[in-house]
Amino acid sequence: MGGEPTFVSVDDRDGAEWNTAALGPTKRGFATELVQRLRGKYGAGSFLHFGQGKWYPGEQLPRWALSVFWRADGEPCWNDPSRFADERTPSSYGDAEARRFIERLASRLDLDPKFIRAGYEDTWYYLWRERSLPANVDPFDSRLDDELERARLRRVFGRGLEREVGYVLPLARDSRPGQAAPVWVSGPWFFRDERMYLIPGDSPMGYRLPLDSLPWVSKGEYPYLHPHDPFAPPAPLPLHADIRAQYAPHAVGGGFAEGGAVAMQAGFAGDGALPAGAAARAGAGDGREAAAAAGTDPARTPVRFESAHWVTRTAVCVEVRNGVLYVFMPPLAALADYLELLAAVEATAAELDLKLVLEGYPPPRDPRLLMLQVTPDPGVIEVNIHPAHDWDELVDHTEFLYEAARQTRLSTEKFMLDGRHTGTGGGNHFVLGGATPADSPFLR
């Protein structure tokens, strides 16, 4: 049993964002405070993820979604919650911190930092956009009808077209049959231009990567991500201590990392021991040995009309926006892989003493991972609360949620013009189902 209760502001009941509009100037701040309170109650060892949610017709961008994830077996996913930055708190990070972070992350994953690419705003597009403005305005006060376009031009020209937006490390998990364990792989990205120009827009750079400009690959060889069968019985996840030990500073090793002699991507046997054959792969962090076994060098430039199936087509991104460091998580098919990358990100943040916000792709749906989510809906904030196993647990969830909302200055009450009491509207659903698809009484 679960639910999707909705809330409105106590102090601004007449504002558009608390009546009709899905987004507004204060709604994300309220949602951030509420999700922090919920994480303190339910998410021991959890991690925060600020991603994208629903996208409705007529809206230029998808709505945001603030999520808390934690493991159902009680093992932590994240060790130090102080490493999460608060977007509402002013910060002063810059490009130097972003570059340093992604270089250390690459080394921690035993990947060659030479594959890191800087991303730039599309100079030619914005020069054309500036030339198409009316002659009696400028990009900083363009007087365009589209509010988002006005803000976009002001931001881009204020920052400067010559500055990096952020940094990209091509990254994928290679789990080919016959390997003793999955490995992290990377490789160069090839473009017609010397620089990597991002697709124009307002979203984080991870959503604006020019992936269509990467070398062509046939549909039959495209590295699609295949979700696991939801009806297959899940295996136990590795212990957090084992995952964390893999990415601790003393364990970093291989061809491109500092200290230690154990390659990070080698995986583990569940008890912290290196699996059979892992030592032989130490130093192959860019995937060269795995690729050599398949007869393909990941750094090789494809020839004309050749299907470049070896090119890595997903990436982790690091950028600074408004002084806050954001790490864009790539899509991954397996939850265990996501948890490993998460451990490497946390270890890097701890080593450099940086705070960050996780964004991008959430972990793959998995019954071994619980989630609650705070999202915007027209006129309300909606909380998608995690399932309860019995009535008493549902009552406890609901009572704590409503008290946390009250402390955040959110309410479940609205009043009509004549003073009559009414509900908040929005979803406010009551949800029934099973812990897994196989357990659901509606799917059995």
Task: Explain what this protein looks like in three dimensions.
It is a single chain. This protein is an alpha+beta fold and 444 residues long. It folds into two domains: 1-72 and 367-444, no CATH class; 93-121 and 161-354, no CATH class. Helices cover 24% and strands 17% of the residues. It is built from nine helices and 18 strands. The strands form five sheets. The chain has a six-stranded antiparallel sheet with strand order 3-4-13-14-2-15. It has a six-stranded mixed sheet with strand order 9-5-6-10-11-12, covered by helices on one side. Strands 1-18 form a two-stranded antiparallel sheet. The longest helix is centred in the C-terminal third of the chain and has 18 residues, at 335-352. The protein starts with a strand and ends in a 13-residue tail after the last strand. Residues 252-288 and 290-295 have low confidence and may be disordered.
